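Protein details
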Amino acid sequence: MGHVRYRHRGWNGGNAHPVADTRRALSQLYEVAGPVPVVLVGHSMGARAALRVAGDPQVRGVVALAPWCPPHERASHLGGRTVIALHDEADRITRAGDTWACLSRAQAAGAQVYGLRMPHGGHTMIRHARQWQRVATEATTALLGLTPLPAPLGEAGTWCGQPAPWIP
């Protein structure tokens, strides 16, 4: 258990194959471990799939890395969850502005949201990969109640010299 293996390539329009694959992975997890708290971590299309299935009763939250958040994507099912999104505004594949708008919709639905403007990394997150990995790991363990939120999330103010959009 650990990584979702997609059976189909791409989102495939209304089929949204990654969503079915993510639900299948959750089902397999519950068969093995029973009802355990879950935090979904995904990048790009994987983050979109994670956000789509976050209404599952065992899911506490989502850590979305450079997520693909189309403007029409609903967020009403995210109420009661925590959504943490990391995005570099220089990303040329997915739009950080769409991510911040998705967080706004999720917040309106009752989710606790945090958005971090990452200073580097683009879409691939290769530049400063350790920073992305550290924040994602710390965010995940915090959502599981094992550690406090990472400093950039737990402090009001700025992250890497820029205002953070959703730090409470």
